[in-house]
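Batch job 17 of 40 flagged for manual review because the log was empty.
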Amino acid sequence: MENYLEQIKNKLKKKFNPKSINLIDKSYLHKSHKSYDSKKFHLKLILECERLKKLDVIHANRLIFSELREDMYKKIHALEIEIK
């Protein structure tokens, strides 16, 4: 799992060059949910990035989701995004 989270971080670093990036696995909070899949992650992304901060929230989120499109289909069930 740690390796996968690092891969996600590296994709985002390469694309957006953030000052800082924190990716938190919150999957354990969703184990009781009906749609829970142990093969998919619930993640919280905290990204400090001037480029994205200048954009409206929807546009910034779209850029992030676009970069992680394949991961969203295969390994990420939910992604909470906070841009600083």
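Reviewer: the log was empty due to a logging misconfiguration, but the result itself is present. The longest strand covers residues 41-48. Unflagging and moving on to job 18.
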